[in-house]
Amino acid sequence: MLAAWLLVWLALAAGLLQVLICGVILFSARWSIPVALIFLALPFVPLILMQEIRGWRRLDPVVPAIAALLSIAASAGFYWELFKQMAE
Q: What is the rounded distance in angstroms from the CA atom of residue 68 to the CA atom of residue 47?
């Protein structure tokens, strides 16, 4: 359970800059707004799943941990693609 919480908060911390960048993209992009919205919401998904554990529906802590790892991987890919675009 503690590892799941740590991964969830790490995913949120890793995605904060991504949320800021996607917020800016929302105002300057036309066709990529749905993609920016997905990347904007992605860091919050593990946190939302972790909150569901406390409620009436019991999820295994592995589910938010896996979602956090996927969110971290997506954030890393987002930052890598941004880095490649800036290097050109």
A: 8
> CA-CA distance, 11 to 25, in Å (whole number)?
21
Residue 69: predicted pLDDT: 93
pLDDT digits (tens, 9 = 90+) for 42-84: 888 888 888 755 555 667 788 888 999 999 999 999 999 889 9
> DSSP character for 39?
H
Specify the DSSP class assigned to residue 32: T
CA distances from 18 to 2, 39, 77 (A): 25, 7, 11
For the chain, give the mean pLDDT. Answer: 84
Within 8 A by CB and 6+ apart from 21, the residues are 78, 82
């890919």: which residue's tokens?
Answer: 77
